[in-house]
Write a structure and sequence with these properties.
The complex is a heterodimer of chains A (113) and B (114). Chain A has 113 residues and is mainly beta. Helices cover 0% and strands 50% of the residues of chain A. Chain A has no helices and 11 strands. In chain A, the strands form 2 sheets. In chain A, strands 2, 4, 5, 6, 9, 10 and 11 form a 7-stranded mixed beta sheet that branches. Chain A has a 4-stranded antiparallel beta sheet with strand order 1-3-8-7, with no helix packed on it. In chain B, a hairpin with a 4-residue loop joins strand 7 and strand 8 (71-76). Chain B has 114 residues and is mainly beta. Helix content of chain B is 0%, strand content 54%. Classes of the chains: A mainly beta (113), B mainly beta (114). Chains A and B meet through strand 4, strand 5, strand 6, strand 9 and strand 10 of A and strand 4, strand 5, strand 9 and strand 10 of B.
Chain lengths: 113, 114
C-alpha cells in the first residue's frame, strides 16, 4: 500500500462530457503528478502540481486541467471528452525537491463511449 | 514521446529461473526508477537508482545503471509465479522544464510459469 488513493476506480462517460478524477497523496508528500496510460503503453506525463500550482505539463491539450489543494490532494479535470481519452489515469505523489521515489495510486479506468 | 525502451517486450520463464530486463534511454538523468504493474492497475515502486550509482540491490532485485551507455537492467532472481506482471523503467531528468516528471518506456511483460 502506497498511501496514494484515487477515486473513482472505474468510470464510464459519454463523448463530449466532462469528468473529474481525484487523488489523495501520500502523507508528507508535497507534489502530485498525473499520468495517462493507454492500453499496452507506458504512462504518459500529463502535468504536475507543486504548492498548488501547475509546474510542468506534458503534450496534452488545455481541456486537461487540474488543481492541487492545501492538503496536497489533487483533481484532474477533462472537458469535452473524446474516445481517445479512454485510458487508465494514474496519480503519483512525491516529495520535491529531493528527487525521491514517486508513489502511484491504483488508478482510475476511464472509458469514453 | 517515450524515452525509455525496455527490452525484451515480453519474457516467459519457469519458476525459479532468473529474469533480466533491460532499459535504454536517451537523455541525461538524475535517477532511474523501476516499477511493476499487475493487470493494468497501479504502479508499484520497486527500486530507484541515482545517476552516480552503478548497482543497487533490494531483496531478489538487482538493478544496474550504465550512464555512459544510457542503459539499465533489472534482474529478478529465483522468480515466482507472483512476479508475473509488466515492468517499466522510468527516467527522472530532474528539473528540466520545471518539473520532476517521469518518462516511461512501454514495459516488459514478464510471465513466470509455475
Amino acid at each position: 500500500e502506497t498511501g496514494v488513493t484515487q477515486s473513482p476506480t472505474h468510470l464510464i462517460k459519454t463523448r463530449g462530457q466532462q469528468v473529474t478524477l481525484r487523488c489523495s497523496s501520500q502523507s508528507g508528500h508535497n507534489t502530485v503528478s498525473w499520468y495517462q496510460q493507454a492500453l499496452g503503453q507506458g504512462p504518459q506525463f500529463i502535468f504536475q502540481y507543486y504548492r498548488e500550482e501547475e509546474n510542468g505539463r506534458g503534450n496534452f491539450p488545455p481541456r486537461f486541467s487540474g488543481l492541487q489543494f492545501p492538503n496536497y490532494s489533487s483533481e484532474l479535470n477533462v472537458n469535452a471528452l473524446e474516445l481517445d481519452d479512454s485510458a487508465l489515469y494514474l496519480c503519483a505523489s512525491s516529495l520535491r525537491p529531493q528527487g525521491t521515489e514517486a508513489f502511484f495510486g491504483q488508478g482510475t479506468r476511464l472509458t469514453v463511449v | 514521446s517515450q524515452q525509455g525502451e525496455e527490452d525484451p517486450q515480453a519474457l516467459s520463464i519457469q519458476e525459479g529461473e532468473n529474469a533480466t530486463m533491460n532499459c535504454s534511454y536517451k537523455t541525461s538523468i538524475n535517477n532511474l526508477q523501476w516499477y511493476r504493474q499487475n493487470s493494468g492497475r497501479g504502479l508499484v515502486h520497486l527500486i530507484l537508482i541515482r545517476s552516480n550509482e552503478r548497482e543497487k540491490h533490494s531483496g531478489r532485485l538487482r538493478v544496474t545503471l550504465d550512464t555512459s551507455k544510457k542503459s539499465s537492467s533489472l534482474l529478478i532472481t529465483a522468480s515466482r509465479a507472483a512476479d508475473t506482471a509488466s515492468y517499466f523503467c522510468a527516467t527522472d531528468a530532474g528539473f528540466q522544464g520545471g518539473s520532476e516528471k517521469l518518462v516511461f518506456g512501454k514495459g516488459t511483460k514478464l510471465t513466470v510459469n509455475p
